[in-house]
Design a protein that fits this description.
heterotrimer, A alpha/beta (302), B alpha/beta (237), C mainly alpha (231), A: 302 residues, alpha/beta, D-Maltodextrin-Binding Protein, domain 2, 2 domains, ten-stranded mixed β-sheet, 45% helix, globular, C: 231 residues, mainly alpha, MetI-like fold
Chain lengths: 302, 237, 231
């Protein structure tokens, strides 16, 4: 008797969770056959489905891009227009590119131009397009012990020199991400080797690194979007900005469909077309204005 | 049922723990099995109960070699009663359930045996929480409820209070009142053996050193070892 | 300190707001963990009994391996399963990577050894005693098995509870094979990890409390059964 009650309860809980899940996300349909001319021409077909192909694409992008909230803002528009679900896998830039190399993703959205061009040159991607840019900023403790705000407010290389000279705590992404690559580029320009107890290589995402710098009262290079979205939780302030060398260009690339059979090439193309369209570019420029008074990303597709 | 042992040998890792060339247990008799620790008494019961295999030789049941059906008419009671984690009534019902008795029949038989054994007050208690004496009574009830022909009891009354011992002995004697059951009974209590056993077997190092009518063997043991053994038993009594 | 208190208040508000995204995440966690526990139980309990009662060659080695497998690192399991299910992996055509199904598979790999291990160990210990007892009472093989299952019912519940506990609380495996994809494979644990790395403390704490609460409730129900029956 008791045993029956127990298994009943168990099954009830299981059914409950199944219902909750079932009402929530819809399982994306399998990628369908590409629309041929014939299918398009067939009039008078009573279908309940969306006119365009359904299916899903895997978009590999960086953690900072996903964390900024931009994708949550613009992607529903894509799904509405095309019926294609976008599965966003957010990892470091290195991993995002690797997923492209391995054919694990259908399209990439990253911000490491040199690596992206190499990616295409090696045949892993079809073509690279500019999408938008945001900028990096140097943030640091409010009391600014390195006096960067006074002396190098718009010169990032000088700012880096000041940090190196004074041995002021600097937290680096240390994870081969776009941000990390940019940081290393700048050290290179300054002609300096960042080493020493003051240089902390975190191996973590942007959010974690900002937190760390906050806790340690140190400096770090961050993308403006992530910083703005976390600003309320941080005591860090902007000490350097506006230097052209701090530009962070985003690019979109369709992964070479010859890598394997599961790559949704049509979906990738649809995504790129949509991302570069005037409407979407306009949408991008609206993101963040309401909350922060300024757009977090500046569209610059050609 | 008659039990016959022929050339029975049991070995554990080179050591011979049982060596009985020829012995008969006859129905209607209660056999007391005595001997020092490690003599092989428990092993003897276990090989008859088929809980352990013989290394050599054969055991015959009513002149026939063993077959599975024999198991249903045999019962073995361990020294330490192993009861299932269920109520006393449920424990006692198990052998009848295994034999596919009807539910009404089971209830009737179980109630009858519970009152015979004087354990009505324990009927719905969890069997694993009983005291030694109570547990052994329940185990015995469970062992007897399906009226086995062969009873193999391994020290059923050790660690019991005198009152419980009396009850158990009465039950065993009553069970055999028709003199048709074969009962083997391991005990360290020589007085008990004298009280209720028809025959007594003295086992030492796996060998039956001496056997015969209980009163005779105990009063005038023939072998030196047995004499010494009996003289020490006054520690127990 | 302030964070924790405010987090608790935030948590209550969050749950009462019935935010569909949050409930979807909770639901998915339950679904994945229940499914993997259920599968592991259906496979692991019978197998555990079978192997615990039978004396076969190499049993000692098997026991050792099984006990090791009971504490497989989730992230390593996730890695291996991801390698197999990824597009260029041997089972890439199944398109399971980044789906709840993959998460269930990975979690089953973690939970199955636990369930099987508990049952194997307890039936190995208690099995022979029960078997022998049943033999002397005239039980056939099936009866004996049923009695054994009844005797070990407390152990069975412990096995299932431990298995579920592992499933609902791990983050490494589901993060790697699921990818923490919004609306698809985001569960409570990956949600917490992600939000923490974004600095969203309150919502992390809120979801953490929900996770603890669910763990507690499930355990309370299952352990209630044990103390109720095994007394």
């Amino acid at each position: 008797m008791r045993k029956k009650k127990f298994s009943l309860l168990f099954i009830l809980l299981l059914v409950l969770s199944l219902i909750v899940v079932g009402c929530g996300s819809k399982e994306p349909a399998e990628p369908e056959e590409p629309l041929t001319e014939e299918n398009n021409m067939e009039e008078g077909q009573a279908t309940e489905e969306e006119p365009k192909a359904g299916g899903s694409i895997i978009l590999s992008t960086t953690t900072s891009t996903e964390n900024s909230g931009l994708l949550d803002f613009i992607l529903p528009d894509f799904t509405e227009k095309t019926g294609i679900e976008v599965k966003v896998v957010a990892v470091g830039t290195g991993k995002a590119l690797q997923m492209g190399v391995d054919g694990e993703a259908d399209v990439l959205l990253v911000h490491a131009k040199a690596s992206e061009e190499e990616f295409v040159a090696e045949g892993h991607g079809l073509e690279r397009f500019d999408v938008m840019y945001n900028d990096y900023i140097l943030v640091g403790p409010a009391d600014d012990p390195a006096k960067i705000k006074d002396q190098a407010n718009s010169n990032i290389v000088d700012a880096f020199k000041l940090l190196h000279e004074g041995g002021h705590t600097f937290v680096s992404r240390g994870d081969d991400s776009g941000t990390h690559k940019k940081e290393l580029e700048l050290w290179g320009e300054a002609g300096l080797e960042p080493e020493g107890a003051w240089y902390v290589s975190a191996g973590k995402g942007m959010g974690d690194v900002l937190q760390m710098a906050d806790e340690m009262q140190g400096y770090t290079l961050a993308d403006r979007a992530t910083y703005l979205s976390m600003r309320d939780n941080l005591e860090l302030v902007i000490v350097t900005e506006g230097d052209e060398r701090l530009f962070n260009q985003y690019g979109v690339i369709a992964v070479n469909p010859e890598k394997n059979d599961q790559i949704n090439a049509e979906g990738a193309q649809a995504f790129i077309a949509w991302l570069l369209s005037d409407e979407t570019q306009e949408l991008i420029s609206q993101f963040g204005v309401a909350e922060y008074g300024e757009p977090l990303f500046i569209p610059n597709a050609k | 049922m008659e039990i016959t042992l022929k050339n029975v040998k049991k070995r554990y890792h080179q050591k011979t723990v049982l060596d009985i060339p020829d012995f008969h247990f006859f129905p209607g008799k209660i056999y007391g099995i005595i001997g020092p620790n490690g003599a092989g008494k428990s092993t003897l019961l276990k090989v008859i109960a088929r809980l352990e295999e013989l290394s050599e030789g054969e055991i015959f049941y009513q002149q026939q070699p063993f077959r599975k059906e024999i198991l249903k008419t045999m019962t073995y009671l361990t020294q330490k009663p192993f009861l299932f984690s269920a109520s006393v009534v449920e424990n006692i019902s198990y052998p009848l359930k295994f034999r596919k008795y009807k539910r009404d029949e089971i209830r009737f038989l179980v109630e009858k045996i519970i009152s015979e054994f004087g354990i009505e007050h324990l009927a719905h208690q969890l069997a694993t929480k009983l005291s030694g004496g109570e547990a052994q009574r329940v185990a015995l009830a469970r062992a007897l409820i399906f009226k086995p022909q062969i009873l193999l009891l391994d020290e059923p009354t050790s660690n019991m209070d005198p009152n419980s011992i009396e009850i158990i002995e009465k039950i065993i004697l009553k069970y055999n009142h028709k003199k048709d059951k074969t009962i083997l009974f391991i005990t360290h209590n020589v007085a008990q053996a004298k009280r209720i056993c028809d025959e007594v077997i003295y086992l030492e190092n796996g060998i039956i050193v001496e056997s015969g009518k209980a009163k005779d063997v105990i009063a005038s043991p023939k072998s030196e070892n047995l004499r010494r053994f009996l003289s020490l038993e006054y520690y127990v009594n | 300190m302030r964070y924790i208190l405010e987090g608790i208040i935030y948590a209550i508000k969050l749950l009462l707001s019935f935010d569909p995204e949050i409930y979807e995440i909770i639901g998915l966690s339950m679904y994945v963990s229940f499914a993997s526990t259920l599968i592991s139980s259906f496979l692991g309990i019978p197998l555990g009994f079978l192997l615990g009662l039978k004396h076969f060659k190499g049993r000692k080695i098997f026991a050792r391996l099984l006990n090791t497998a009971m504490s497989l690192p989730p992230v390593v399991v996730g890695l291996v399963v991801a390698l197999i299910l990824s597009r260029r992996g041997p089972l890439g055509q199944l398109q399971l990577i980044f789906t709840p199904a993959a998460m269930i598979i990975a979690q089953t790999c973690l939970v199955l050894p636990i369930v099987m291990g508990v049952i194997f160990n307890s039936s190995r210990d208690k099995g022979t005693e029960v078997e022998k007892m049943c033999l002397t009472l005239g039980a056939n093989k099936l009866d004996t098995l049923l009695v054994l299952v009844k005797e070990l019912r407390a152990n069975i519940l412990v096995a299932i509870t431990s298995g579920f506990g592992r499933a609902i609380s791990e983050v490494g495996a589901v993060m790697i094979v699921g990818g923490n994809i919004k609306n698809h494979t985001r569960v409570m644990t990956t949600f917490i990890a992600m939000n923490h790395s974004m600095g969203n403390y309150y919502i992390s704490i809120a979801m953490g409390l929900v996770l603890l609460g669910i763990s507690f409730i499930v355990n309370a129900i299952l352990y209630g059964r044990i103390t109720g029956t095994g007394d």
